[in-house]
Amino acid sequence: MPQTAVIPPGTGVPLAPYVPGTLADGILYVSGTLPFDKQNNVVHVGDAAAQTRHVLTTIQGVVEAAGGTMADVTMNHIFLTDWANYGAINAVYAEFFPGSKPARYCIQCGLVKPDALVEIATVAHVGKKA
């Protein structure tokens, strides 16, 4: 099956061997997205809401680069470091998904950089573009 890497303009170099998104048969798989700047430094240290907004804005850029919108998102995988941040993460999440909500799951875990409070991976159905 043909696959297309989706790399929005201005994307920094990833920490590991992956691309921001892969489009295959109209389905976009967005890699786990952390609150990183272009140099892979954590932004908004200590602020789960701001980190979540940064992560979802980054994901939105990948989805749009693939020709979709956030309304095309069908699944989110949310990883957080502390359940105390669950409410703040959900408040920002609701801003990005105001209508019908995608399926999702949320787990508490350690992340690649200690100052990162949230990571989200996404699946979106954007049509057959690859």
From TrEMBL:
Q: Which reaction does it catalyse?
A: (Z)-3-aminoacrylate + H2O + H(+) = 3-oxopropanoate + NH4(+)
Q: Which domain of life is it from?
A: Bacteria
Cross-referenced InterPro entries: RutC, RutC-like_sf, YjgF/YER057c/UK114
Keywords for this protein = Hydrolase
Q: Is Hydrolase found in the keyword set?
A: yes
Summary of the function given for this chain in its UniProt record: Involved in pyrimidine catabolism. Catalyzes the deamination of 3-aminoacrylate to malonic semialdehyde, a reaction that can also occur spontaneously. RutC may facilitate the reaction and modulate the metabolic fitness, rather than catalyzing essential functions.
List, alphabetically, the HAMAP family matched: RutC (MF_00831)
User: Which PANTHER family does the UniProt record give?
Assistant: 2-IMINOBUTANOATE/2-IMINOPROPANOATE DEAMINASE RIDA (PTHR11803), PROTEIN HMF1-RELATED (PTHR11803:SF58)
User: Which family would the database say this protein is a member of?
Assistant: Belongs to the RutC family.
Q: Could you tell me what this protein is called?
A: 3-aminoacrylate deaminase RutC
Organism whose genome encodes this protein: Pseudorhodoferax aquiterrae
Please name the taxonomic classification of the source.
Bacteria, Pseudomonadati, Pseudomonadota, Betaproteobacteria, Burkholderiales
Write the gene name.
Answer: rutC
